[in-house]
Amino acid sequence: MHSERPPNVPHSPPLVVITGPTAAGKSALALQVAEELGGEIISADSMQVYRHLDIGTAKPGPAERARVPHHLVDYVDPVETYHVARFLADAEAAVRAVAARGAVPVVCGGTALYLRALLYGLAPGPGRDVELRRVLEARWDAGEGPALWEELGRADPELKARLHPNDRTRVIRGLEVWAASGRPLSAWQRGHGFAQRRSPVLLLGVHVARDELYRRIDARVLRMVDIGWVEEVRGVLAAGYSPESPPLQAIGYRQLCAWLLQGGDLQQTVAAIQRQTRHFAKRQLTWFRRLEPRWVASGTPEEGLTQARKFLQTCPPSL
Questions:
Q1: Distance in angstroms (rounded) separating the CA atoms of residues 96 and 229
Q2: In the chain, ranges of CATH 3.40.50.300 domains
Q3: CA distance 162 to 273
Q4: pLDDT tens, residue by residue, 170-192
Q5: Which of 24, 39, 40, 226 is an S-S bond match for 104, by CB 3.0 to 4.6 Å?
Q6: In the chain, where does the domain assigned CATH 1.10.20.140 lie?
Q7: Fold of domain 130-191
Q8: CATH says 15-121+194-220+280-314 is which class?
């Protein structure tokens, strides 16, 4: 069992954290919990943070944001690389501001790396090497992603086994840490342990049966295309954003950029997005099990609300 907070970490406001794989229904649960318990939502989604990328990120729309304040949504421009250290600083500031208003911080998202950092802090390690990172990013953008992937395998096979070959940010970070310290990032992470939570947390995971989750994913991709995802990507490219921009390397955006720029069969492109999104959801579940959430069934908001109320009664936000 996780202890609530290591002794050397100052008291932080209690958090209700809602996570789950893509298309599981975590945003709907977070909205209802925040609305009924007087909360504000802090996004822990590495894609919703970007402006102009709305449909493909399933970003909350104006109606949802009118019901409950949202933070770290539409926060940075697509040319920026938004990394976990920046998220941690921004999220902690948002948590403190929400708690200071007497509201409940409700963190919602499926980016496991962000959630782990918020719950347990960052593993120690070398800081960002701006020049080395610039070189590695230039190599990736020049088409050397597969070569960098193989280099990571030689430097840090444990980390490589956990990443997707197209995970530009984390592949580059792994190579940066190895070059700067001579020690694999996975070894730095093992040394950290990620065993003690930094603040009182109720971590809820939204559960959906695997077959149903995959059905939802396939249907959602089709719905996104129907409501204008292709046009959204076309507009982003027309605005001058490079298809090599970090968020446009994400699943769905990467395939649609390639289709718009190189042609091909849109139906096959959509099928590839569905397939890769299903694979991504499977990897998400592996990460979430390590975080040990309390699972609640999708579509049962009363279950999540009951747990949140009990948690806040034992750990009031005013502490």
A1: 35
A2: 15-121+194-220+280-314
A3: 20
A4: 888 888 888 877 888 888 766 55
A5: 39
A6: 130-191
A7: Histone, subunit A (1.10.20)
A8: alpha beta
Q: Is the pLDDT of residue 130 over 90?
A: no
Bridge partners for 15 per DSSP: 201
The 3-class SS string of 8-77 reads CCCCCCCEEEEECCCCCCHHHHHHHHHHHHCEEEEECCCCCCECCCCCCCCCCCHHHHHHCCEECCCCEC
Rounded percentage of the chain residues whose pLDDT exceeds 90 = 62
Whole-number Å distance between alpha carbons of 194 and 201 = 14
What is the per-residue pLDDT across 267-309, written as a single tens digit (0 to 9) for each?
Answer: 999 999 999 999 999 989 888 888 889 999 998 899 999 999 9
Q: What is the pLDDT of residue 116?
A: 87
**pLDDT at residue 123 in the model:** 67
Structure tokens at 299: 């579509």
**By the 8 A CB rule, do 78 and 236 touch?**
yes
CB atoms within 10 A of CB 310: 11
